[in-house]
Specification:
The protein is of the alpha/beta class. The protein is built from eight helices and 15 strands. It is 22% helix and 24% strand. The strands form three sheets. Strands 1, 2, 3, 6, 7, 14 and 15 form a seven-stranded mixed β-sheet that branches. A six-stranded parallel β-sheet has the order 10-9-8-11-12-13, sandwiched between helices. It binds zinc ion (2 copies).
Length: 325
């Protein structure tokens, strides 16, 4: 499924099979998760995608050939971070997520909305056994970014999650496992998301713009809605942190300094490092994180993106490359 131009539907295309270059593996894609970031790419909110582009950066598949690290048949996952330079000041200080020259899967490199994909083998990793392909896919971005965001939230006992989609449904489970209390903030009338959050261990779920039931020690904003930032700051206690976990967000409205005063911290989380991937792939089975997915055939990628856009997905949407019917 190919993006020819932003703000146009993806097009089903017969592409020449990709060839792995030195250090790359060719992967037979089994499934690819659908991420909010894919929507930002398709909607033209992220600049200069490598058009024509195959989106998708939560790839689960099996190695066909290439590279040295994996054997043919090995199951691997490919996340958003597709390549880094290894030489810039960020790469040399353990912050490859901030690399000035990073290349991202399904953005600057072709991704997994396809039957075949290539990846730099250094940025692919093994998928924990026990996760079927489809259930593993959301671990690769929703899980990884959620994990990084939760670490940035520090030791917070009372954790607010703003937006209860793919990432929050995973973070909620990890946070409960760590003994934290979880409060889920959604659109006022989104009873489906609120019920889902309670099923996963949130002790309260309700209107993100209404009053919080009690002070939070930290909040993670997953929904790409700038208006939620002052709302989350208002709900957060002195010394607490508000983490913006998305790659794009509508403008943040101005707010009184009083909301930030008291050593509250407002920060973003950008991308991921390979270390995040290794950490989270070890952590997920020990919780154990159980992902809820809805499967769509690859050819229905546009419909899956539309369901994500309208907030209709419970858990995560995943594209399945197996021919349907
Ligand atoms: Zn770099
Ligand atoms: Zn993503």
């Amino acid at each position: 499924m190919v993006l020819d131009s932003p703000r146009e539907p993806l097009r089903a295309a017969d592409l020449t099979s990709p060839r792995p270059e030195a250090g790359e593996v060719l992967i037979e894609v089994a499934v690819c998760g659908v991420c909010r970031t894919d929507l930002h790419v398709v909607d033209g909110e992220l600049p200069e995608p490598n058009l024509p582009l195959v989106p998708g950066h939560q790839i689960v598949g099996r190695v066909v050939e290439g590279g040295e690290r994996f054997a043919p048949g090995d199951r691997v996952g490919v996340p958003w971070l597709g390549w880094t330079c290894g030489e810039c000041r960020y790469c040399r200080s353990g912050r490859e997520n901030l690399c000035d020259f990073a290349r991202f899967t399904g953005y600057q490199r072709d991704g997994g909305y396809a039957e075949l994909a290539t990846a730099d083998e250094r940025f692919a990793f093994p998928i924990p056994e026990g996760y079927p392909d489809a259930q593993a896919a959301p671990l690769l971005c929703a899980g990884l970014i959620g994990h990084r965001a939760l670490r940035m939230a520090g030791e917070a006992e009372r954790l607010g999650l703003y937006g209860f989609g793919a990432s929050a449904h995973i973070v909620c489970q990890v946070a409960r496992h760590e003994g934290r209390r979880v409060f889920a903030f959604t659109r006022a009338d989104d009873e489906a998301a609120q019920g889902f959050a309670r099923e996963l261990g949130a002790e309260w779920a309700g209107d993100a713009l209404g009053p919080a039931p009690e002070e939070l020690d930290a909040a993670i904003v997953f929904a790409p809605v700038g208006e939620l930032v002052p709302a989350a700051l208002r709900a957060t206690a002195k010394g607490g942190v508000v983490v913006c976990a998305g790659i794009h967000m509508s403008d943040i409205p101005s707010f009184p300094y009083e909301l930030l005063w008291g050593e509250r911290v407002l920060r973003s989380v950008a991308n991921l490092t390979r270390r995040d991937g290794e950490e989270f792939m070890a952590l997920a089975p020990s919780v154990p994180v159980r992902t809820e997915v809805e499967l769509h055939p690859l050819a229905a990628a546009n419909e899956a993106l539309e369901r994500l856009r309208s907030g209709d997905v419970r858990g995560a949407a995943v594209l399945d490359t197996a021919p349907s019917g």
